[in-house]
């Protein structure tokens, strides 16, 4: 009987039988798989095992028994040692390796663009894959997730840790490549047992003993904790260069076990996280780590295969991609899409639209009820807190269900602030939801105060005006007052909610008038029946039969809503948000692409300004290398160089600009002589690559050499950098000045010979 097995090389190479495999063949397979991985191929290793029917029958009977054992199933569910895993390992080990295969698994259409849009939207993308490290890194580069050398790469992989260990004189037997993933799992199980017993010291001792046996793991943990400490201590929480984290299956288990919090801090600070050779339980482990470690984030799990099911179920929201690997991911997901690029529409279009709609619906429901409740609450002070109701049952029963019910529903379902095309062009608008700008305590307080102000205006404005309208004509003035108040409240609430809509549809205009007409028609009809409303009988006709009533309704409504309208108009005019700008472009029919280009340039300038601000807070020794790494265009680089001069020379900004302009025109020595008490090392190092520590000393020597330099007419442009460096050196100590003087003479003689030849 023959049993064939295929799987990842990291697993299959551990399961082979050394006695039944040629060592050279195993090395050749491993080497070839590594080469394929570097070319971004998906690899798989094949092996087989020969068994007798008697041995297989014995194994099968025992396996069927333990699979049905509840105790063993519970142990396996808790990921503790159990007979099920032991029997599976027994059957899968001792293999004879046959060979390996590689297939090209190309990216779907639109994946790099989709990831770029998600990144611009403020979404952190973690790539958790079962591919080898080399394959995963190449795929990450291909889809613009990993941008080298722009990003600072942090690697927690066997290859990187072992290379670092050997460079520091480590022993070959201490290499992490000799550690199997099962060893980490065994330590995790032992630590869990110790923690269940309440013995935390024992758990720490188990981990410490394991790290002592493997110096590479200890070094990795210390490095991770040091990175986390630097990030926490950084006030701006922002490195000069974005970081990317790469780790493999060994360090997924180890770092989440030994330094969970530090690992989470480092991972969340990285622009990209690439987890390689991850098992399905490790995918879910990383998802739960982020979900439970930071309560403010929302996790979205995206996958297309059976190995992604646990990750999809562990995330807040799961998205399954319908692909060639079956429908298990789709069946366990909240949403299903056919290609990865459709994820941008799901998040940037539908996500923004529905999140905005739900928040507006919730806020407007609170707002309109605040008005209705407070006008009744304020009335209790007029009637001596007696509890007398001056509202009809019609207003109480149908205020929320009929008279003001449409606009929360309209804002949640039909309203669109920007078009779908602009949602794609400006993914930055998705950051509003991430930063809680649409639904927060501050925004809720705004609607609360708005409702409070308008209810006070309605209450006291109606009380002031009711005598002039119905005095001596209404059966009981307090019921006429209640009818007037609820009429204005319905009008103000609907009008204010109408102003929140972004697009004008005929249905919204019709709904505004229908809501008012429903109230007018309803109260007009029931006020004609004394049995239904004895205190309101004929009062509606008496109240609205007076022309002054209409003037008062318009006046009080205007006073209530005008302040909020003015505040909104001023804010949109003088401090518009990105949404306001895009809406203006849509209304005027302007070019949205030109706006996008302008916003990208503005964002680039803001990014450079923030980068310089961060660098300026660093010590001078640490700031200099980072200034050299600033990524900016020619115009912005001048600002970088000027900032370098300001930092190095401790000068005022105006003096620094003058000095820089002098250096650009070649008057370097003149600019140096014009500034007393300065160090020229930084300028020389920054602009010309020299490394002379020059300080002003001998004025006579300087004056003599200055005359020689200024009298000489340099005609060879390629020597300019060297000459400028010498000029700095001439200001240094005498022995350096003499050496520079002789070198200057040599250049002068060479230049004279060139003139003669010409």
Structure description:
- One of its GO terms (molecular function) is ATP binding.
- Residues 748-758 have a biased composition (Acidic residues).
- InterPro entries: ATPase_P-typ_TM_dom_sf, HAD-like_sf, HAD_sf, P_typ_ATPase, P_typ_ATPase_c.
- This protein is an alpha/beta fold and 758 residues long.
- It has 4 domains: 2-103, no CATH class; 111-346, Rossmann fold; 349-575, no CATH class; 618-757, no CATH class.
- The strands form 3 sheets. Strands 4-7-6-5 form a 4-stranded parallel beta sheet, sandwiched between helices.
- Helix 2 packs parallel to helix 7 (133-142).
- The longest helix is centred in the middle third of the chain and has 40 residues, at 343-382.
- The chain starts with a strand and ends with a helix.
- The model is unreliable at 471-475, 648-657, 663-722 and 728-736 (pLDDT under 50).
Level-1 CATH class name of the largest domain = Alpha Beta
CATH architecture of the largest domain: 3-Layer(aba) Sandwich
**Strand order, biggest sheet?**
4-7-6-5
Q: Can you summarize the main beta sheet? A: 4 strands, parallel
SS strand fraction: 5-15%
Shape: elongated
How many structural domains can be distinguished in the coordinates? 4
The percentage helix is 55-70%
CATH topology of the largest domain: Rossmann fold
Number of strands: 10
Strand pairing plus helix content: what structural class? alpha/beta
Query: Total helix count?
Result: 36
Gyration radius from CA atoms, angstroms: 38 Å
- Report mean pLDDT, rounded to a whole number: 77
